């Protein structure tokens, strides 16, 4: 697992119960805005997510893959998941992103707090990122 993503996982392991949800909300508030030249309409939808989520994978430079996400403020769980992926994977080499375990999110310890359907949304985001990189 890339160091930045391992650090995020470690942050979640350090807190218990409802504090994990609070940490997820903090991530949601830190989701980077889209660059001015990228419009949501040009991004790929992730229909597996419970709330509208769009992503864009810029792999022109495979040594520095850029990840962009758009999710409404009214969808803090989805925004939180996107922000975790952005914090843990943005600007990494494609090979490192492709090597991330598909179920890494299980290590966040959110399964007792968030529905399996919502957790599958995070899995779908990672799957789509990897598909674009392949």
From TrEMBL:
Domain Fe-S metabolism associated: 10-131
Cited Gene3D superfamilies: 3.90.1010.10
InterPro entries named in the record: Fe-S_metab-assoc_dom
Domain of life from the UniProt record: Bacteria
Family: Belongs to the SufE family.
UniProt-recorded name of the protein: Cysteine desulfuration protein SufE
Species assigned in the record: Mycolicibacterium rutilum
